[in-house]
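Hi R.,

Here's the input for the adenosine-5'-diphosphate complex you asked about:
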Amino acid sequence: MNEPLLEFLRVTKEFRETAEPVVLFRDLDFALQSGHSVSLMGESGTGKSTFLQLAAGLDTPSSGAVLLGGREISSLPEKDLNELRAQGVGLVFQFHFLLKEFSVLENVLLPAWLAGTPRVKATKRALELLEQVGLSARQGHFPAQLSGGEKQRAALARALINDPPLVLADEPTGNLDERNAALVQDLLLRLVVDHHKTLLLVTHDKVFAGRTDLSYRLTAGKLERS
Ligand SMILES: Nc1ncnc2c1ncn2[C@@H]1O[C@H](COP(=O)(O)OP(=O)(O)O)[C@@H](O)[C@H]1O
Ligand SMILES: [Mg+2]
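And here is the predicted structure with adenosine-5'-diphosphate in place:
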């Protein structure tokens, strides 16, 4: 088997600064192979979002190591860590976090500008992505002029603008009606099948979770296949 794209090695995450220490997981092992999709379910408060934050290098383990492409995230120099966050992972949340002063196209372009991608190249890619998510006709609109489903699809295009190999999605359909949830589901799953991305998905939707290659449940700090 190839080296996993994402690997947790004996990862412990706890909060000790609180009145009652919170232990989310202890010595947790996890591996995600490149080109696979994995879903993570579990009760609220079990640490699913924290798990994704650790995978994105936005949080650090209390002990153990998180490896992305075989490199330990927490040992990376600041410059590499920023590059990893900007280009190595695409994040989609339940809430879209689009900037309201910017058009849909500008929102999608922001991470490319931050990464220093030449403007013409970035714009071409942004327009392709907007087409893929069915928002070509909305590129000049502002977030307030979009429905919830459209905003989430714009956020998905933004997450993909720098072409990250790993896509992390935290309850991406949690706020959507059935039709838009189905659209976002299909878009995310198609990334893996058609574009060789790797997907780690947190969802409460059993049907959605059932469409990934592997499903896990996080219960009392343990990952179980489900
Ligand atoms: N900085 C912190 N200090 C103490 N507890 C925290 C901190 N951050 C998160 N937690 C706790 O960790 C638990 C898991 O949070 P989270 O990862 O958001 O769970 P989930 O996404 O599964 O609902 C929650 O009970 C939350 O209160
Ligand atoms: Mg959460």
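One thing worth noting: Residues 48-49, 170 surround magnesium ion (ligand 2) (CB under 6 Å).

Cheers,
M.
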